[in-house]
């Protein structure tokens, strides 16, 4: 669950517990060029205050008007559709042909939002099912095949933990990767047992660990919302971390270094209790080929590859198609 969703749900809980009439609004269907994707959420308080977004602001304005005026005060779930006609699309500022359907849910103790957030905070996946006829909520551990389904009678949403990025190595490149990953809403943990490397770290919100990387990875119990990136060039640190990460469900495991160094790394990994299929999961040389040379550029290339894989988009610029980037590889080695 990203920080925007967390913010919306936490705010909805706070407003409801204060006694204010509060609605949770979820986009459940879109047609054409809808401004926000399915699953987008916002909450509205009775005085018109909002948190989150379901459009560019146009639909929010209409809902604010209805709630603030008292025109809308339903306590059972309702559906609304915006943008069916050309006139409505123009009125609500939707893109040409854009239509979206939303579910409006009155927030109360019955909504079970605190229990949902508590489960997610423990790195758990939770399925939340809303019965539109009664407003009853069912929470169950685990996830369905899709993150949201809606059949007019039931709204089923899947909520998971924030994505985590474990960076092994605390040198200069790690600083840029950590800073950019935070802006992409990752929970960032930087691990480096070398005493001299972590002392100067001062990036707010980044967790620091002096454990051995393999011990930390085992302790974190990585899941499919986790990524591991090794940036030290020290086999004693990188290889041991990779051995544990590649056996885990982590969606991304990457290691910096040239193609030659990564080939040697794969040979070393093969000497341990790890399968060829697990070794094949390793992304190395790490990152999409962008012609990157500076630390910020290399960080962008790494996070671009992570983002594509996280979103299920094929990475077209494969390592096999790269030109021989001698300067890049030398630069990357020097920076990490």
UniProtKB/TrEMBL annotation:
<dbReference type="Pfam" id="PF02625">
    <property type="entry name" value="XdhC_CoxI"/>
</dbReference>
<dbReference type="InterPro" id="IPR003777">
    <property type="entry name" value="XdhC_CoxI"/>
</dbReference>
<dbReference type="InterPro" id="IPR027051">
    <property type="entry name" value="XdhC_Rossmann_dom"/>
</dbReference>
<dbReference type="Pfam" id="PF13478">
    <property type="entry name" value="XdhC_C"/>
</dbReference>
<dbReference type="InterPro" id="IPR052698">
    <property type="entry name" value="MoCofactor_Util/Proc"/>
</dbReference>
<feature type="domain" description="XdhC Rossmann">
    <location>
        <begin position="165"/>
        <end position="306"/>
    </location>
</feature>
<protein>
    <submittedName>
        <fullName>Putative sulfurylase large subunit (Molybdopterin cytosine dinucleotide biosynthesis) /predicted sulfurylase small subunit (Molybdopterin cytosine dinucleotide biosynthesis)</fullName>
    </submittedName>
</protein>
<feature type="domain" description="XdhC- CoxI">
    <location>
        <begin position="15"/>
        <end position="83"/>
    </location>
</feature>
